[in-house]
Automatic annotation (TrEMBL), chains A, B:
<dbReference type="InterPro" id="IPR002220">
    <property type="entry name" value="DapA-like"/>
</dbReference>
<dbReference type="GO" id="GO:0008840">
    <property type="term" value="F:4-hydroxy-tetrahydrodipicolinate synthase activity"/>
</dbReference>
<feature type="binding site">
    <location>
        <position position="211"/>
    </location>
    <ligand>
        <name>pyruvate</name>
    </ligand>
</feature>
<dbReference type="InterPro" id="IPR013785">
    <property type="entry name" value="Aldolase_TIM"/>
</dbReference>
<keyword id="KW-0456">Lyase</keyword>
<feature type="active site" description="Schiff-base intermediate with substrate">
    <location>
        <position position="170"/>
    </location>
</feature>
<dbReference type="Pfam" id="PF00701">
    <property type="entry name" value="DHDPS"/>
</dbReference>
<comment type="similarity">
    <text>Belongs to the DapA family.</text>
</comment>
<protein>
    <submittedName>
        <fullName>Dihydrodipicolinate synthase family protein</fullName>
    </submittedName>
</protein>
<feature type="binding site">
    <location>
        <position position="48"/>
    </location>
    <ligand>
        <name>pyruvate</name>
    </ligand>
</feature>
<feature type="active site" description="Proton donor/acceptor">
    <location>
        <position position="140"/>
    </location>
</feature>
């Protein structure tokens, strides 16, 4: 099966300076490290990347920093979906203008309980406003955060209306059967698991790969699984390692914990911050984390 | 009791042009009409105003249009809270630079289940970044839409830290006892009901007034209630009228229905549109609405 987006993609975290602006230098170093680890792509500016806490201007700066550092545009999958359609259009056009043709797009998510018809109209107007044949969109289903689920009927309608543009979905709801059903219904449409333990079973049933937070830490092990599907002797210890890291990252609020773990792994202090409403770990949490981190496989 | 914000404030709806950009001329005419009806203030760019569907640039244009039309800055309470703190700061500074000192501020609402500590940090950083003694903030509690409730402990902490800035709250959760408890705990802090039937009982127990959607249609009756508290012979029929209009506005998805009703009331066609994910009413709905509208008191 050939997909427009596939493999191990990292929902890259965003390090911050002391004034809580993005630390672009450290971010770019992290992106390079992720590619060195074996990640196929970097899904920057997602939920883990705190994208919704950054202004349109900051989001542009972050993407431009990665490109300026020489990271190839086809390795980047920026999140460009915000509540206001004109800004989603602006961010997506900005990516395209910089040669980045693949984006991950949240639906507008302020209003809850909106109709499929309304969500279809939102996506359709955005795609038509952008009007660029190169554009490839990965839809983003993360109802536990966005509050706005993407139904199978909506997904089918979007694929039918924009078959060369709507090429995949990141499913972060954690329900493997939902991902499998989407993959089964739409061969060639890239279903990407949002949770690390689900990439393996999803790949076995027609999925395309993953976009996950833990790949900030163990992208190499995810890559091992992707490359050695079916070789249980190789896959099992890799999955066990991923699960151990993921479990620790869920000890506290996930995003600051992942950032703290990247800090412990890399030795850089710029990972110790988060932009409110997220907060960095407290001292007791950090000390507990440090202890358990030392024991990770 | 003296409040910094009080009375009948209208959560003004935003009419749209055929291309779904804001129809500034019609919006300004509506604002004038609302003041003529007797509204004390216009809470533009709130949930009813579809503010989250507009870009920062569009939000600035909408506020500027109202000011350019000669509406006094002290009659305007724009919503300025968005997910990205730098944009909340920008929108609030823009209001202040135009002499508008009172704003309604949503918390950042993409991440759910965040701590009071994190929400306090978010508001505190915004207030400190703005650094303007003139600023008066009405907090915005609308958990059924934003997904982010504001707890009593958070409200108390914000009032304590910023007593001259954090002056009130719009409570749209529909639970009168919650509003009464906040009013009782913080005399002088303006609790504003987000639902029309609750202004009356709230005013009787220390509340300051309302910010509601139905006041787009029957602001005059709300003003009657506000001015004649205790005079049941006047208040009761006014409340009955409000309730009838409100009930009809809830027949279909509320925001487009209110817009359609403003259109029926004013005869202007620019109210027949909504920005996705909201959609205008369908023909059958409109025809049903028209019939019932004709029977309203």
């Amino acid at each position: 099966m050939s997909f427009t987006v596939s493999g191990v993609n990292c929902a890259a975290a965003t390090p911050l300076n002391a004034d809580l602006t993005p630390d672009l230098g450290l971010f770019v170093a992290h992106c390079r490290h992720l590619l060195d680890l074996g990640c196929h792509g970097i899904a920057l500016l997602g939920t883990t990347g705190e994208a919704n806490s950054f202004s349109v201007a900051e989001r542009r700066q972050i993407l431009e920093a990665a490109l300026r550092a020489g990271i190839a545009p086809d390795r980047l999958l920026p999140g460009t979906g915000v509540n206001a359609a004109p800004e989603t259009v602006e961010l997506t056009r900005h990516a395209l203008a910089n040669g980045v043709t693949r984006v991950v797009m949240l639906p507008p998510s302020y209003y809850k309980g909106v109709s499929d018809e309304g969500l279809f109209a939102a996506y359709a107007r955005i795609i038509e406003s952008i009007g660029d044949e190169r554009l490839k969109i990965v839809l983003y289903h993360i109802p536990q955060v966005s509050g706005v689920p993407l139904s199978h009927a909506l997904i089918a309608r979007l694929i039918e209306a924009f078959p060369t543009t709507v090429v995949g979905i990141k499913d972060s709801a954690g329900d493997l059967s939902n991902m499998q059903a989407i993959a089964a219904a739409h061969p060639g449409f890239a279903v990407l698991a949002g949770a690390d333990p689900l990439m393996l079973p999803l790949l076995k049933s027609g999925g395309a790969g993953c976009i996950t937070a833990t790949s900030n830490l163990v992208g190499d092990s995810l890559r091992v699984i992707y490359d050695h599907l079916g070789d249980e002797a190789v896959v099992e210890p890799a999955q066990a390692r991923i699960n151990a890291w993921r479990s620790l990252s869920n000890s506290y609020v996930q995003i600051p914990t992942i950032k703290a773990m990247i800090g412990l792994q890399s030795g850089s202090t710029g990972w110790s911050r988060a932009r409110p409403p997220l907060l960095p770990l407290g001292d007791a949490q950090l000390s507990d984390l440090r202890e358990k981190f030392a024991l990770l496989p």
